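Structure (tokenized):
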């Protein structure tokens, strides 16, 4: 079996309200993205990643 170059092996679980879940799912459908991809992108937008010096 071939390994993916950017494979993700860790799972992060987060509790959200029904309203928050509905909002996330609605946005996910509107932008045609999987929820996990949407959340990764949102995290990247919110957290200032530092590049190597």
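Design, position by position:
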């Amino acid at each position: 079996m071939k390994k993916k170059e950017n494979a993700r092996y860790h799972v992060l679980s987060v509790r959200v309200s029904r309203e928050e879940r509905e909002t996330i799912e609605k946005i996910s459908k509107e932008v045609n993205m999987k929820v996990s991809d949407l959340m990764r992108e949102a995290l990247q937008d919110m957290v200032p990643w530092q590049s190597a010096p």
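Reviewer-requested clarification: The longest helix spans residues 18-30. The mean pLDDT is 86.
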